[in-house]
Design goal:
296 residues; alpha/beta; eight-stranded parallel β-sheet; two-stranded antiparallel sheet; 14% strand; disordered N terminus
Length: 296
Amino acid sequence: MRKIALFAIAAVALASCAAPKEQEAAKKEIGIELYSVRDLIGNPEKFAKNSEATLKAIADYGYTSVEAACYGEGKLYGLTGEEFKAAIKAAGLKTLSSHVVRYLEDEEIASGDFSAAMPWWEEAIACHKAAGMKYMVAPGINIPDNLKDLKVVCDYMNAIGKLVKENGMQFGYHNHSHEFNEVEGVPAYDFMVQNTDPELVFFQMDVYWADNARVSPVEYFKKYPGRFTCLHIKDVAEVGQSGKVGFDAIFGNFETSGTQDIVVEMEGSSYPEEEGGILRTCKESAEYLIAAPFVK
């Protein structure tokens, strides 16, 4: 009997030790675009002053990773890649991705020669690799008014994607609404998907901006399966409260879209600062996604 009792006590102890790990494993992976809190930490000076408290709040709300939105001259928010990674890790978060772009000049598009842009990308890639990023994402471009020039942009994206892949990361493109406008009778977004290499370029569909353009994210998932490795989850303000975006259908088609990660972005808040402002919007958006049965 004593052996049985000891075994039972040991089993309970093991179960109690295992429980936190099981709970941690069950935590939903939800990233947040730091552009959402740009008024608090949107530049190096603000980041130095407010990042500790802001990042702690973000982690407390249930977000697990961040997407950066302030890169310049080899640094993220004024920090080296290693320093930025350490700051994010100190808050209990992970570095997931970053919005970063070097636009082509008109002369580069006209000539089709974008070689002068590549050293800029090499420096940016080194910073993001040191920061532990999984993705580097171009946050948009000015769409040319003809397909010849748009093809140059696609070739440029392929060249960037090749460099990024060689450094162990993935390169993507984030849309707004204007990409769904037609260029010489073809939706620019479709042309971009069709003329970029799936091995080098993925598409970070912003589902809110797609909805604003009156296109269905799910229909695009079905049209170009596997191209949407990471998504921007966005609403009018707090995610899930407007009823405007069909999040259940979007999340229900991840197997088709190829989505591995989601990043929440807030353009603004329904609440004035005295009622919690953007941090309240971040919190309520996280609560919605954590509670939603369709979010894995």
